């Protein structure tokens, strides 16, 4: 998508008043066009396959199995040259909702975000980046990490990392960027980039967001740990 093209958005929102508000908000932005809306996730699965919007924006009071199915279908239909991104707005986040982040091009954000934040999230998502909820990033990325605590098959994969890769991995899932990791380890940033790519390849992960989720599921991040809002997983 070029800068001149508008971002096509399809809305899924069961609350008619909320839907009308989002339509009014997004229609005022010249860079965004609303191509359709529905209160039904099941209907959205049919309509998006025909309309193929850049972004599907789904607002829910709680995560439904139909939404997970929608995310999986959009990921299967998506093409590298014409990707379909799904933004799911939820009022809160629990362990079950983490499943959404395992699906390609799926983002979970705060249902109570401001108008400006919503527009920014749509733009960032359509550009191919992954905005992350601060409460999710805080509980996953900043938690105390113990690689020795890894369990099951995931634990065995972690043990295949070299000593230096394990240290880089620890810092990655605490949310440090490549320059910050380089400074912490007193090495060149290019060296860190090489380690990060090696870690992703060995663990069969796509990006840093998946690395955080992997650490969470492997038991590297205590589920019960409650943390204040903090840094998000870095993209570089």
What does this structure look like?
The structure is a single chain. The protein has 236 residues and is of the alpha/beta class. It has two domains: 7-131, Rossmann fold (3-Layer(aba) Sandwich); 139-217, Rossmann fold, CATH 3.40.50.2300. It contains eleven helices and five strands; from the N terminus they run E-H-E-H-E-H-E-H-E-H-H-H-H-H-H-H. Strands 2-1-3-4-5 form a five-stranded parallel sheet, sandwiched between helices. Helix 1 (16-27) links the parallel strand 1 (7-13) and strand 2. The longest helix is centred in the last third of the chain and has 14 residues, at 189-202. The two termini are 22 Å apart.
CATH superfamily of the largest domain: Response regulator
Structural class: alpha/beta
End-to-end separation in angstroms reads 22 Å
The helix-strand sequence is: EHEHEHEHEHHHHHHH
Largest sheet: 5 strands, parallel
Helix content: 40-55%
Proportion in β-strands: 5-15%
């Amino acid at each position: 998508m070029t800068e001149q093209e508008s971002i096509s958005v399809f809305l899924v929102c069961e609350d008619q008043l909320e839907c009308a508000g989002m339509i009014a908000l997004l229609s005022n932005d010249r860079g965004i066009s609303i191509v359709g809306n529905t209160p039904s996730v099941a209907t959205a699965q049919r309509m998006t396959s025909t309309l193929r919007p850049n972004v599907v924006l789904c607002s829910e009071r709680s995560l439904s199995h139909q939404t997970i199915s929608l995310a999986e279908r959009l990921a299967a239909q998506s093409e590298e040259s014409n990707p379909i991104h799904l933004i799911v707005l939820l009022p809160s986040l629990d362990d079950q909702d983490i499943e959404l982040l395992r699906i390609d091009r799926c983002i979970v954000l705060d249902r109570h975000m401001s108008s400006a934040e919503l527009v920014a999230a749509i733009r960032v998502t359509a550009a191919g980046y992954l905005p992350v909820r601060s409460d999710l990033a805080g509980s996953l990325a900043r938690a105390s990490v113990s690689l020795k605590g890894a369990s099951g098959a995931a634990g065995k994969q972690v043990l295949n990392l070299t000593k230096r890769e394990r240290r880089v991995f620890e810092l990655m899932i605490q949310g440090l960027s490549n320059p910050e990791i380089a400074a912490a380890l007193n090495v060149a940033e290019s060296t860190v980039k090489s380690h990060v790519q090696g870690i992703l390849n060995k663990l069969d992960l796509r990006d840093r967001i998946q690395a955080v989720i992997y650490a969470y599921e492997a038991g590297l991040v205590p589920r019960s740990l409650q943390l204040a809002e903090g840094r998000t997983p870095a993209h570089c």
